[in-house]
Design brief:
This protein is 2% helix and 56% strand. Strands 2, 3, 36, 37, 38 and 39 form a six-stranded antiparallel β-sheet that branches. Strands 26, 27, 28, 29, 30 and 31 form a six-stranded antiparallel β-sheet that branches.
């Protein structure tokens, strides 16, 4: 699901630009109703959006379906806002469009989660269907989230409850590709909610649930023993959950994520430090079999050649480590890609903030503002044996007051990994640029993606999405944020 402030469609075909081909773009004018969500439909390669049906009738929420060429097919009104409804998300599975809404009923003092279902032709399959009813308590006031299986045939909806000092608890609801609710229940952990945090959750093609969590053993982290990561495998048939420790001795695990393959092997990988939680010096890799047995554990330190991109020889000799590098922790693209041979690609970006003082022009008083810095991206290829094969560096420098339009978006193509980001060069105007990192780690020079990108535009990587093996959707605002464009790009 992509959540937006505004979006509209206008199809235009472009010519070949460098290594990419911009197939079509979609623009929204400031006088048009602005949807809040958009979602790609793999079954027919179309698009569905949701938001106010018109500018005047902004309380009436509707969905609009577009075909592969972004021609409007149909529009349906879904609900009318009454001040008590919250749209959790829009998603598509198979031939079904789902809208999930949570609503507070003051008379009954309960929160009901309802869903609406349509097929891609616009037929209403369900309306105000009740998913859950719970008392209006603080722990229930959390958004309903979702995860799709890799083959897009299973939909997992879940609520991670806020139980504070009670046990960590997740409510889950499983739908199949026919759009039917086939299972629901609770996942309970033996650790209290204030000590245990779920950091990543995924569902397999068979509907089994895999979870990665972080357990804090003390209130203050001094050593690597003060916290640990734990992996979980929930078997939907037996409804039993197995805990697997992610343990690398005295090393600080600073970034970690996971992927699952078709055989339900779990690949956990990330970065570690010997000094603390805010640095990295190498990679960790753990493979857990479908039988919940640890098949491989490995760590590997960065080479001195790679460290020299960020550290001097003297710093390397003294054991200094890389600082401020983090894997993404928003959305589903959290910086790990599973290779076809059982290895992984890891990505981390240098991120930090600074505070600067300035004199307000109107008041004359001094004020402070936070500046967000998003700089170089590192890409590390790890073999199926857990060893670093090569490292690459995407050289970029970004800074701004709003982190939402900073950072990068990546897509995997047949030639390698593409990294897209906004860049302003001394001899080139501001645009969306990209670097290609080839299969052997060689990084090509940056190249512009769009010729008509205006100086007042803002690229939003977090809204972008790779929709198949050869295409991706790019999102940016223009005209000071009053217009929004979605650009369909062919990835080589």
């Amino acid at each position: 699901m992509k959540y937006l402030i505004a979006i509209m469609f206008c199809v235009m075909t472009y010519t070949q630009l460098s290594a990419q081909e911009v197939i079509a773009r979609l623009d929204l004018g400031k006088r048009d109703a602005k949807p809040d969500f958009y979602e790609y439909c793999p079954a027919d390669k179309g698009m569905v959006t949701m938001g106010p049906v018109t500018v005047a009738a902004n309380r009436i929420i509707g969905i609009v379906k577009y075909d592969e060429k972004m021609n409007r097919q149909w529009m349906k009104e879904v609900l009318e806002q009454n001040g008590r409804k919250h749209v959790d998300f829009l998603t598509v599975i198979g031939d079904n469009i789902f809208v999930f809404v949570s609503e507070f009923f003051p008379k009954d003092k309960v929160i009901k989660t309802l869903y609406y279902k349509y097929n891609l032709r616009g037929d209403v399959l369900a309306s105000d269907e009740v998913l859950s009813v719970y008392p209006n308590q603080q722990e229930q006031k959390v958004d309903l989230e979702y995860e799709l299986s890799p083959n897009k045939k299973k939909l997992l909806c879940y609520k991670n409850l806020r139980n504070r000092r009670e046990s960590e608890q997740i409510l889950y609801y499983l739908f199949d590709d026919a759009g039917d609710l086939v299972q629901n229940g609770e996942l309970k952990f033996k650790y209290s909610d204030d000590k245990f945090t779920v950091t990543d959750l995924r569902i397999s093609n068979d509907g089994n649930i895999f979870i990665l969590g972080k357990l804090y053993k003390t209130d203050r982290i001094v050593s690597a023993k003060d916290y640990e990561y734990l992996a979980y495998h929930f078997d939907r048939k037996t409804e039993k959950m197995k805990e697997i420790p992610i343990n690398f001795g005295n090393k600080f695990i600073t970034n970690v994520a996971f992927r699952i393959d078709k055989e339900e092997n779990m690949y956990v990988a990330g970065f570690y430090s010997d000094l603390g939680t805010d640095k990295i010096i190498g990679t960790i890799f753990q493979k857990i079999g479908a039988n919940n047995k640890v098949l491989l554990e490995s760590t590997d330190e960065f080479s001195d050649e790679f460290k020299s991109n960020f550290l001097s020889k003297g710093q390397i000799d003294r054991g200094k480590e890389l600082s401020n590098f983090y894997m993404h922790n928003e959305g589903k693209d959290n910086g790990i890609v599973l290779r076809s041979d059982g290895g992984v690609l890891l990505m981390a970006e240098r991120q930090y903030t600074t505070v600067q003082s300035y004199r307000d022009f109107y008041t004359g008083y001094w004020a402070q503002q936070t500046l967000y810095h998003y700089e170089d991206v590192i890409l590390t290829s790890i073999s199926p044996e857990g060893k670093i094969e090569w490292d690459a560096v995407i050289d970029k420098t970004q800074a701004g007051l709003d982190p939402a339009n900073l950072s990068y978006f990546y897509a995997i193509g047949g030639e390698g990994a593409y990294f897209f980001y906004e860049y302003s060069g001394k001899r080139a105007g501001t645009s969306i640029y990209y670097n290609l990192v080839e299969m052997d780690g060689k990084t090509a020079a940056r190249a512009p993606l769009l010729k008509d990108y205006k100086w007042d535009s803002f690229f939003y990587p977090r809204y972008c999405e790779q929709i198949n093996n050869s295409e991706a959707l790019m999102v940016y605002f223009s005209r000071g944020g009053s217009e929004l464009s979605v650009v369909r790009v062919k990835i080589k």
